[in-house]
Specification:
Blueprint: H1 2-19, H2 29-48, H3 55-66, E1 70-71, H4 72-79, H5 83-95, E2 99-104, E3 107-115, H6 117-160
Helix pairs in contact: 2-6, 3-6
């Protein structure tokens, strides 16, 4: 009987997902932005799975790569990542020998961030995959649609502010 209940629950779950009335949610831009973010992140994870790089790690590596010597607080602010969470991200990147912290001579409390040689080599692969990933996403809406989407997203950020992680809680 337990197997019958499991089968019924599965059928019910599928039916619910297909026919559930979401009310006005699909008409709300914030809701759809979040759903699109989940879809894009899941696609990103599949695209980068063998490199074991998550979107936030890619963002941190990119900012460090483009701005060597930046302080942790600057990266945290630029990406909207809580400082405590950035510390954990940097710890993981250091364990993988992708990034390193260097003491700042003028401020003993701060660290400058730099990619290691291994991190720089990985960034070359990440950039190539990121470009291919963007092209794949753009293939669904076309390049002009992608450009328009980016323009609209930048407009939202300019209008309401950049936000930061964990604000929805």
């Amino acid at each position: 009987m337990a197997n019958g209940k499991a089968a019924k629950a599965t059928e019910s779950d599928v039916r619910t997902a297909e026919k559930l009335d979401l009310g006005e949610l699909p008409l709300l831009s914030g809701y759809m932005l979040r759903r699109a973010q989940f879809a894009a992140f899941n696609d990103f994870l599949r695209f980068f799975e063998d490199l074991d790089v998550r979107p936030v790690q890619y963002a941190v590596l990119t900012v460090i790569d483009r701005n060597p010597g930046l302080k942790q607080s600057q990266v945290s602010e630029a990406l909207g990542i809580k400082r405590a969470n950035l510390v954990a991200i940097l710890d993981a990147l250091e364990r993988r020998q992708l990034a390193r912290r260097e003491a700042v001579a003028t401020d003993r409390r701060s660290y400058a961030l730099r990619l290691t040689d291994k991190g720089s080599a990985l960034m070359k692969e990440l950039r190539a995959r990121s470009e291919a990933h963007e092209k794949r996403l753009a293939s669904t809406i076309g390049e002009s649609g992608r450009q328009q989407l980016l323009k609209l997203l930048h407009g939202v950020i300019e209008a309401v502010g950049p936000g930061s992680e964990g604000e929805e809680e």
